[in-house]
Structure formats: C-alpha cells, structure tokens
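Q: We require from you a single protein entry containing the residue sequence and its fold in token form, and nothing else.
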Amino acid sequence: MVEKFMGTWKMTTSDNFDEYMKAIGVGFATRQVGNRTKPNLVLCVDDQGLICMKSQSTFKTTEIKFKLNESFEETTADDRKTMTVVTLENGKLLQKQTWDGKETTIEREITDGKLITKCTMGDVVAVRTYVKEA
C-alpha cells in the first residue's frame, strides 16, 4: 500500500547522483547545486485521492500530483518536460519518466524504516536514502 510512503522524509545520503544527473543531461552548474542540495521529500494523499509528492529544498521546491497508473506531464527540477507514470509494484513506488526518446526510472521503497530511492538511467544508478521525520 502507498500509505507507508506518506510523511516527511529527510535525505541522509546521496550516492552517485552527479553521474545520474550527467546521464539524464543535466548541465554542470545545475549539477553543482543538485549535489549540494539535500531535499526533504513530502508524500501525502489529498481529498481527491491524488498522491502529492513534494521535494523541498532551499534551492527549489517541486511538486507533482498524480494517480497511480495514469500518465501525466511532469516538469522536473532540472526543467525537463516528461511524460511520467507512477505505479506500485511489489511494495515499491516506481516513477517512469520519458522525454526525447529517453527514459529514466525512479524507484522508491521502504527498507528498515528508511526510504531508499534508486534513480536509474541506462547503466547509471544513484541511490538516495531518507529517514522519516518525527
């Protein structure tokens, strides 16, 4: 169920994120900021049943609202315009973004009370770990 993902999550570690940003085509200056930023991830469900996912940092706040298994247009933090679909598979929240013939997957799962986010582009994988705020 998607309920276990709900709440505010604070990033504790980020591994290989620079390589991932390079792989999806993020420019150097934006990567510099992206590497220093430790966003909070806030997940909730609104009264229309839409899942709301917000990434908050001092640099930028982005928010998407979606229903599982329904495609929507997303403007990413690095200003890519993607067609995105989020599914729930084997207890993992899978976010698939496609743009310009490219595709990346962001997989989120809860392991040992932590939210583990794997960002995959081709053979490049970044792993970002979040802990739930009390």
Remarks:
- The CA atoms of residues 62 and 77 lie 6 Å apart.
- The chain has a mean pLDDT of 95.
- The beta strands are 7-15, 40-45, 51-56, 61-66, 72-75, 81-89, 92-99, 102-111, 114-121, 124-132.
